[in-house]
Structures are given as C-alpha cells and as structure tokens.
Amino acid sequence: MTNPLVFFAPSGKRGRFPEGTSVLEAARKLGVDLDSVCGGRGICGRCQVEVGDGKFPKLGIVSAPDHVTEWNAVEERYVSKRGPLAEGRRLGCQAKLCSDVVIDVPPDSQVHRQVVRKSAAIRDIAIEPVVALHYVEVREPDMHEPSSDFRRLQEALEQQWGLKDITAPLESLRLLQWSLRQGLWSVTVAIRHKREIVGIWPGLHEQGVGLAVDIGSTTIAAHLCDLASGEVLASSGVMNPQIRFGEDVMSRVSYVMMNPGGDVELTTAVREAIAELAVSVTKEVGLNSNDILEMTVVANPIMHHLFLGLDPTELGGAPFALTIDGAYQTRAAHLNLPLSSGAYVYVLPCIAGHVGADTAGVVLSEGPYLRPEVSLVVDVGTNAEIVLGNRERLLACSSPTGPAFEGGQISSGQRAAPGAIERVRIDPVTLEPRYKVIGSDLWSDEPGFDKAVIRTGVTGICGSGVIEAIAEMLLAGLITPDGVVDGAMATRSPRIEEDGRTFKYLIREGEPRIAITQNDVRAIQLGKAALYAGVRLLMDRYGVAAVDRITLAGAFGSHIDVKHAMILGLVPDCELDKVGSAGNAAGTGARIALLNASARTEIEDVVRRIEKVETAIEPSFQAHFVGAMAIPHKSDPFPHLEAALGVTFKRGSGDGEGGGGRERRRRRG
Amino acid sequence: MTNPLVFFAPSGKRGRFPEGTSVLEAARKLGVDLDSVCGGRGICGRCQVEVGDGKFPKLGIVSAPDHVTEWNAVEERYVSKRGPLAEGRRLGCQAKLCSDVVIDVPPDSQVHRQVVRKSAAIRDIAIEPVVALHYVEVREPDMHEPSSDFRRLQEALEQQWGLKDITAPLESLRLLQWSLRQGLWSVTVAIRHKREIVGIWPGLHEQGVGLAVDIGSTTIAAHLCDLASGEVLASSGVMNPQIRFGEDVMSRVSYVMMNPGGDVELTTAVREAIAELAVSVTKEVGLNSNDILEMTVVANPIMHHLFLGLDPTELGGAPFALTIDGAYQTRAAHLNLPLSSGAYVYVLPCIAGHVGADTAGVVLSEGPYLRPEVSLVVDVGTNAEIVLGNRERLLACSSPTGPAFEGGQISSGQRAAPGAIERVRIDPVTLEPRYKVIGSDLWSDEPGFDKAVIRTGVTGICGSGVIEAIAEMLLAGLITPDGVVDGAMATRSPRIEEDGRTFKYLIREGEPRIAITQNDVRAIQLGKAALYAGVRLLMDRYGVAAVDRITLAGAFGSHIDVKHAMILGLVPDCELDKVGSAGNAAGTGARIALLNASARTEIEDVVRRIEKVETAIEPSFQAHFVGAMAIPHKSDPFPHLEAALGVTFKRGSGDGEGGGGRERRRRRG
C-alpha cells in the first residue's frame, strides 16, 4: 500500500506521507503555512483546515472527508469548549491522512495571512510575526538530573517547536518559576525573532497583541493590534503633553537648551503619555498593558530623540546632526513603559536631521521604492517631508513650510477641528463664496446649514480651507498670479474690502468675520513655495521634469483637496487621478513594522539607500523658491491641471516677498 | 631592493614588508600580539617594542637600532608627556622598517599577557579581553551627508579598527553626543566582545577596569582589576547585609517564604551592598564606579538567585530546582548597579541546586578538568561543595556539613577572627596543649605570648582549631577512634574533666575556659562524616579508590592544616604534598572570568559536562556516612598519612550517632 498523497491549497505544495500522519505534521514538513499555538494538541484551534470533497482531475486526486481520520475526542472537547467549527472544517492536528486528499488552508489559518487595509491602499500588510506564541509542556524538576526550570523550558522549546538556544530576560525568568507551577508544567511563551522570550503565561494563552505608536508634535496616536490577525483592536490618541513646554518642536528644543534637565522632563512627559495610552487602549478591550508584547514607534527626529532620551539640542541648528539614524530597538522596561516582561520597542530609522522615522513610516506604508513609476510623497506639516523616486532610486528632503498650513499665522486661522471652515468655493461670476465646516456635511448655502453648525459654531478657517479659498480666488480672478489681492475687484464685489494698504476677501460675515487677507495669501505663498521648491530640487536631482504619482500624507494631506492644492501650486502638475491622500501613513508604517518582521529590514535598507538632500545648502533652492511664489508657478507648466479645469493659467513674476521671510521660519515643528 | 624582513620575538612570526611600514602595522598583519589603544597615533604608549641589536645567525638576520626609522617628533612628544621609555624601547607605531630587524615584544606590550598569581597556582591567568578600549577619530557632521553621530562612529570603528556593526545602548548614545564634541571629534570607546559599546570618553582614555565579586552568605568581596594588565588595583569586602534577614541562607529563604516581598528586600540589600563596594573600591584608587566596564559574579545558588532578583523559594526544598543554571549576563543598569553606561554583569553558571556559581569559580580557578590525574576539590562551609575528577570526567555534589566547621554548635566555638584559637598541639606524653591565636604568631608556651594577645584576648576556638584539637586528641589517645572522650585518661591528666555523663578536654584555663567537649567532638564527627561520605560517593561513582590530589578551597580551607584534616578523616588519604589549600578560589574564578573571554565559554562547557550527584537520594550515602563517623574512618585505609606520621590508626566501629543528626542539619548556608 502506498503512502497517501496530500495536496495543499492555495500553496500548491504536495507530498506523500505515511498513513496516520496528521495534516498539521504534513503541512509543516512541506513548509505549508498552517498556524498553531498549542503545537498540535487540539486546544488552540489555529490549524483549522477544509478537507476537499470531489474529483480534482488536474491533480489526479479524488478527495473526500473520510480520506482523513474521523472526528475525534480531542475535537469533541475543543468544540464543547469553543463552539462548533465552520462547516467542513477539521483541526489539522487531529485529522490524519488515510488516503489521497486535497486540503484547503483558509486564510485565517495561515500565519502569513494578509491584512486587508480599509482605504484603497497601495500594498496590503502581510503578517510575518516578530513575536509568536508557543505552548509547551515542560519536564518537571528531578533531583536525579538537576537542570533548571529555564533549561527544561529550553529543551521543551527545542523538542516541541524546533526553537534552539532561546534566551530570556530576568523579568521573564522571574515569571517562569510561578508560571510553570501554576500551569502544571505547561506554559505559553511569546518568542521574539525565534530567539528571545518576551512574555510567559501559565497554560495556554492565545492572543498576542502589539502597539503601533505615532508620536506627533501635537498628538500621540496608538493602535493596539492582534499580532496574529493584524486586526486593529483599539486605537486611541492623546495630546502630546510636551506641548506645555512649547507649541512646536523648535520651542521644545529651546526649552531644553535653556533649562538644564529639560530634556529629561520632556522625555518623561512623552513616555508617560505613551504609558497611559498603553494602559487605556488595552483596558478598552479587556486586556492589560503588560499583555503588549511588542511596540513600534514612528516620530519626527526631535520626538524620536526625546522619546529615546537623547538630547535633541543638536537638531536645533546646523548641521542638524542626529545622534542615531538607524532603526533602534530596546526593552520597553528600559523606557519605563509598562508592557510585557520582556517586550521590546522598535523605533523606525530616521532618514536625516529633519526627515524622521515618521517619514520612514510613510515610505514603508506607501512603498514608492516598490514601483517603476516616479512617485512624489509629501507629508505636509510645519515642515514638509518630501520623498521622490521609484524602485531604482529614492530621494528625500525637508522643507520649512511654516505654520500656515496648520492655520498658524493666518488672520482667521485655526487647527482642523469642529467649527473650522475646511472647504471653500467661489462663484466666478457673482464672486460669492460658499463653504463647509468640520462637523457638518452641508455647504453654507444649503438649507439647514445654520442649524447644522449650531453646536460647533463657525470658529475660523483651517489649512485646507485657506488653500481652497486662495485657489478659488485665483480661479475667480480675485488675486493675481503674483498673489496680490486685487483691489480693483472691489468694484465687482463688496466682499473685497480695504485692509490698510492692501485688500482682503470676506468669506463670512457675522461673528467672527472670516476673511483671507493679503498677509494670509503671503503666508501660504511662502509655505507652498518652500514645499514646491523642495519638490523641484528633488526632481532636478533625480532628473525628471514631471512625476507619475503624488501622495499627500499626514492629517493635513488627508483633508486637502488635491485639485486645489495643485491650483495653488503646492505640488507639481500630475494626472489628477494619480494624486491621492494616504491619511496617517506614518502610523500605518508603524503598524506594518509591528506585524511584519521583514518589513523592518526592508525599511532599514530603503532608508539607508535614500539620498538625503539638504535644502538649506542647495544653491538652486532659492531660485526654485522664488519661481514657486507665483500661483500656481511663475513658469512651470501644469498641462494636466489646465486640461482638467479647462483654463490656462496666467503666469506671475514670482518676485513677491520670497527670501526674507524664510530664515525666520526655518524649522518649526 | 627587497622588502625588509622583520622577525618578532617571542612569537616567532616573521614576514617581509615594504620599507616604511611601521612595526605595529607589521605586527598586526602577521597577527603578532602587540597592544594599542590609540590605533597607532603615538599617544597611548601601549605598543612599545625593543629593537634587536646584533647578529641572529639562526634567523639569518643582522639587526640594529638603526634598521628602523629614527626617533621622531611623535615619540618626543610622548616622552615629554609621559616620561622616558625604558632603555632600548621604541613606540612600535612610530618605528618604521628600513632593513631586516628583530623586534622583541615585551610582556607588558602584549594584549594576551600572563597575570602572575601570587600564590602557587595551578594555572596562570592569561588576558583575553572581554572589553577593550579603542581610540577613534570621528568625521564631523556634514549637512551634505547627514549621517548620525553614531553612524560616523561606526564607520570610524570599522575603518580604524576593523570593528563592524558595533551597537550601543541608549546610555552610551546619550554620552556620545557630548563626548564627540568635548573630545573635538576624538573619543575612546570601550567595546565588549567586539560588538557593543559599554563605555565612552572624550579624547584618549587609557585604563579600563572591571570588578570581580564573590557574594558569600556572610561576606561580599570585590576585586577591582585593570582589564589590560590583570592587576588587582584594590580589594574590599563588606558583611552581606542580608544577614539581618537570617544568619544562614536557609533562614533567608524562610524569610522570603514567610514575608511577601521579602525576596525584593533581600535582592535590594545585596545589590546596594555591591553598589557601595563598587563606589568604595574605585574611590580607593581615584576612580569612579562608572569607570567599571564589566563585572563578574560568583555566588552560591541562593545568593545567585537573590542577586539576580529570582525567587529562591524553590531552592529551599526538594527537588531544589534552580530557575536558571547557565551563565547569565545582563546590563549593570538593569540590576541598579552604578557602573559604566553600558556595562554588563556576567554571572558564572550554577552546577546544581546546591552547587553554585561559586563552585564554578573554584573549578575555573583550580582547573581539575585540565589535568590527567584525579583531583578532589572541596569548598568547605556550612555545606561542602565537592568536585572530583579529571580532564576525562568531572563529578560534583554538595554535602550538608553543618555549622561546626565554622565554629557553630561548638561549646567554645567562634568564627575565625582575631582572638580565636586556630592551631592546637597536644604533647602525647604530658597531654599538655599549646595553641596559637589568630592575630599572633607565637605559640601559647612561647615567651611573650600573653603580651602578644593582650589586644585581642583569647576569645574562643575556630573551626580549624577544633579540627586540630580533635586530631591531636586522637594521636594522644584522649579520644577513641569512635570519638569518645576517654574518661580513663583523667588519671593521666587533670585536663580531662567530667562533663555530666561525658568528659571534656581543657585547652585553656582562665576566662573564658576553652575545652573540647564530647558534644563538640560529635558535632565535628557529623560534619566530617557528611563531607567524607560525599567524597566517597563521588569516588565510587567515578570508580577510583584513591585520589591523586586534594585542594581545599574557601576561607576555612585556607586556614586548615591538611595533615590534621586528614587525621580527622575530613578528606581521604592522599600523598600529603599533593594536598593544598587554594584560598578564595571562587573569587579567583570570578577574576579569571573577568579578564579572559574564553574562560567564560570554557567554564560554561565544563559545568554542563559535570555530572551532578544528589547525596540526599543516593542509597549508599548513609553507609558511607556511618563508616566516616569513626576517626579517621571505620575501614578506609590511610597509608600515606600513616607513613608520614609513623603511626597505625586503630579503627572505630563507626556506629556513633550517625544518621539522626543529619536531617536536622540539611542545607544551612
């Protein structure tokens, strides 16, 4: 009698095994991706498979449910505890081969399952665990052979899981003694990179969770993820408590420089906030912060240094030397974070003194290095981080856009929060505006608008609102291509008002009055010119005249209307349907690094290959900056945009107040 | 013209190099052991060599001082700062080859120099640095190429020292920024195992020090060593502050079992004591505790666990399961020890639940595994740890000797301290005793004795004194081979006094009266029988009837007179000149592990190979114990001893009070 043939779908791997071999065993020997935490004891239920029923002529197999052994007592016990399996499923560790059979491994039984991202994403996240759970039964101590608890655990891990020379930190060793006895010599250990114990529980423990953290200058966001499924179990955010030491990162660096010990205060503040997030986000799903087995972090360079406890002072001035740029990992306990006994924190690499681990997260999430076409990825904040390139070559720089895009230095500006005007349209004939406010889906000229905004009021205008307003003002002829609010238009609309020696455009009457002043336009021009100049610098360096794709990342990038951004000349011309926003791509990058071990080496390699361009010392930056002061640009063509809008832009002279304001604005966070 | 030939002594390595190659460079290329911290910059002076002058016919070389380049300005600068070099010496990095030459590398210029041990030692300690110092010049930060301080340091270490992928803990990274700027882009880094930074200083730093610590139940000893020369710079000891929780280790385990959190108290106490030792011992030589780059620790299993913060409760009862037995290393900061920023603590492996890292230290120091002859190594304390074997095979056990050897449960007993009787002789004719007291070199019957002991008084008798007294009593016929103080001898000497229903022998009249009572003899018999039974168990297991060499380790072992110990039957018969004491061999083992990286893997391997014997469950232990109650032994022959003394021992029945006392005494520390 021949050994039965087993064919695994979807992997296509096949092989013959002696009758009585379990499906799980066969899968392991063939390298088929079939999960298991309990190691084949029929208790974790991770190895569920479907047994093919029918003829598979291409495979030459006739498969049937009874080509594996019958439903057994272990499976009976499993379903009595956990509820029934889905129709047609078996526990792979219990079903044993009798004759030729086709076995389907459903996605939820695969270790390397894909995590489906909600938004239209460029790449899915595949699971490739950094930390995996392993249930083991450990030999009891024996006076005849006095090996230690840990050595017997090591032996069990080697025999039962093929894991050799596993190490453990003292914190885990402290728990080992208790866990072994509590679990009657069975424990589950969480093992990191197949090397080191980072968590330990008596008996079977099935869920491993990790935390992806995005430390922004203003807010800190944390996503609690199931390390096996990739599912986001809970998300939470808090204000960065460092704000009490300074609104933007540069004022925090100043605080450190002026106050001995200030760096320690800032470090403590950010770590405490993350510790609280870890507690609250786990509590939300009935877990404890010490269930967190791994944490990943993205942050801008100054937040990165402060989080790690490194003095950020050098990042406050030229030559902006980072203390470290590579990815860094250290124990959570070392950072005073209340995670699992041996948990590590992995911090993504920084790219340069102004281009941080947050940008590395964006790059990992958006994957411009995977594609043949040339992508432009821009993370717009007080500084814009700009990445340009493709799988051949990638460039990055940072450009000091100033606070205008976040509503700073704008007469009616405010942060993007309920009550802020975020969308603006201007009728080119009547010159009358309409707008939308965060918190309502209605335009201001639609019925019910006033009622809809009663709760929030209309409190100001945020960055995306200002950008749309100025772009619409250009299309309506209310400002010149040089950015001058055209006083002559006062004859056509009462909304053009004198404002000292300049003019402004009134968007909203009432309290507060909201207008776009000449100074507002200038502030936005300075910011967008800086950003555009940075982009052009990279395009020059790369040697392309146009880009194939543009992604706007970050909170601001996800609110902005890409068409208006392009009209303003924030980004270069591109096919409009190739321009999109990526939302919190930095946070997504942290999640990918949390779930996928290879993604870490991938982003580390990519970041090392990125060519860093320092805008401050590039002679051509100034010329690009001046050209980009015009709206959309003094000379650069916008053929795709013009075609889409059916207009031809007039060109400005680009000699507005360019250089002067620039140095004042360098490097705010 | 041919390239000059250089011959290095004492290594015998030779090679031809282009004219102008420095002696240091040539040495490195040939793998000659020539030290350097500054990397050939003429500032550290570690690479001093002697240039041969004369004919070397066997080598075919005529060597002369002018066969290397002339004394140069760098050497001039060096001697102006550091004082002259020894006659005939040059800096190897400055002297460059001109023609054929013989170069002698003096021992103090070798990295792997031998450390000469003071006492007659079985093996010398060779230096093989775990941590080495490297001076590097680091590129300044550059906005055109924004790599971090750490990356530029890594590059410098690779280029200047061939050290790749060096890592650093956050603590060192914190110091890096400051050190680079303070040192004008030159720093010295201490690198551990050619991998990881554990210390950093601006500019050149020449001395690396480490600490070897022996945590005893009673005292903690620390030796500060120069990591390059091996020299002990300072030694210091303190009482183990855990004594306030219990005199012996078992009472400390009881404390932990009875008091929740007691383990943390005990852990904190021992770590604080070590921290204070680290501070005081470095202060003594003008250093700071954070100059300590590496620490090694030996300790018995309970001290080992408490030091590492592991619950020792399991070690309080069968099956005496250790939490870990392998060597363990972790950062000093992790143990709250104030050493260098990245310093590690390496703890030697434990052998079994009663045979700890201290015994591993003894084994490393005494090296029984290196020799063909069968050695017995005994570390006598409240428990005796016994190691038997040779390079083929090594066995170990622990035997519960009880407190008698340390003066406990002895009527006039005391610890070995000034005032204690440590030597006793009894005239076999007059039956009069004479004795020596710790603190004086005079015998009690010598002139001036009374004056010599005025300061200390005569306060009691310590373990070695009791052993000598009982051995002498046997030789004088005052006790029978069964250990009965012979009342009949009262007719011959007034020093034999009635003591209830038994008799005692008076060693000293006056205050305090010091006598050896029948109970004292019994206590010593129980202890020595336990020890001897353990030894015999190992000899049986090994299959030898006699041992070739005996070493007594530990404080007690170094005070004991080997002949008297053998008369008592503490150890088996052996050629007397093959019996010796090793002093604090455990501490020496810690020192070896501190100075020599290979010694660590060596002892780890040896310990794993040691066969552990658990006396408590060996059926033959009891029989051996009973036989060993007699003095010297009921039946075992002592031919070497008898020949040396010119006597033939009578044999006792060995049925004194054997087994009963044993369980009471198990496992005190």
Automatic annotation (TrEMBL), chains A, B:
CDD domains, per database record: fer2
Pfam families reported for this sequence: Fer2, RACo_C_ter, RACo_linker, Raco_middle
PROSITE patterns assigned to the protein according to its UniProt record, in alphabetical order: 2FE2S_FER_2 (PS51085)
Ranges where the record places region Disordered: 649-669
Residue ranges of every copy of the 2Fe-2S ferredoxin-type domain listed in the record: 3-109
Membrane-spanning intervals of the chain: none
Highest rank taxon of the organism: Bacteria
Name recorded for this polypeptide: ASKHA domain-containing protein
Native source species: Labrys neptuniae
